[in-house]
């Protein structure tokens, strides 16, 4: 008698359903915690975000039954390679910012409306401002990476590598809800997911995410720092585009070794949980346009 053939798709419905529900678990917990408060400052927002994302991580890992080995928290790459990924992430991020800025300018010219952005105002005269800074630059990146490049990416990677990279990045973008921030997060998610799988490390995207948020935050405090930051980002963008042109054949070869031949995207994103999240994303965008 032939031994039973293992079917890697036998848990597809459970995994895809669990990931979609995880987004709604995050939203539901966030809503439940914030409802009792008439006013939420940045410090309280940081605490609520920590509690909410921890619950979401626990739910996602439990439902997908993904096992993340402790070795994944090792760096698994040299400092030089980590620097390369940081330059690539910063460069592609700058390309995304330029593209979004062009779209935003065209949109504003036509409609006289500004594309809404998330407000990251730091008030260092209070503990609340410092707590929010600590969350944005350290705690937030760590927990987001454990969820998105840990539980979600590793779960999707059971099925196909490039599907996992693209899908997890899209989910990461949707998670941010704001249109401009979400589009930028999608590009960051692509690089973070690629680097994480390439090095088989969760520490790599954690450090990259921390570096990115810290650089973005502190260079916004001074016009001179902002100018230096822009020059650095433009230089990184040139390097990233040169890298892409030199490695496009290698990327195609990698894809050909494990092509996306199964309709993974439709199987994942045409579920009710994701369709309703797309609707929430659109409604949030529309409302933010109206409210300003």
UniProtKB/TrEMBL annotation:
InterPro entries documented for this protein: CAAX_protease (IPR052710), Rce1/LyrA-like_dom (IPR003675)
Domain CAAX prenyl protease 2/Lysostaphin resistance protein A-like: 129-214
One annotated GO molecular function: endopeptidase activity
GO terms (BP aspect): CAAX-box protein maturation
Regions annotated as coiled coil: none
Origin superkingdom: Bacteria
Keywords (A to Z) from UniProt: Membrane, Transmembrane, Transmembrane helix
Protein name: CAAX prenyl protease 2/Lysostaphin resistance protein A-like domain-containing protein
Organism, as annotated: Faecalitalea cylindroides
